[in-house]
Amino acid sequence: MSRHDTVLMALRDLILKGEFLPGHKLAEQQLAERLGVSRTPVRSALMSLEQEGLIEANDLGKYAVREFTVQEIMDAILVRGHLEGMAAKNVAEHGVSRKLASDLEACLLAGDRLFKNKTLSLEDYAAYAQMNDRFHALILQACGNRALQRALDLNDKLPFAQASAMLPMQGVVDMDRDWMLYAHKQHHMLFDALVRSDATRAQNLAIEHIEVALMNLRKALEMRDQVSGVAPAIRLVVG
Question: Does residue 116 surpass a pLDDT of 70?
Answer without folding.
Answer: yes
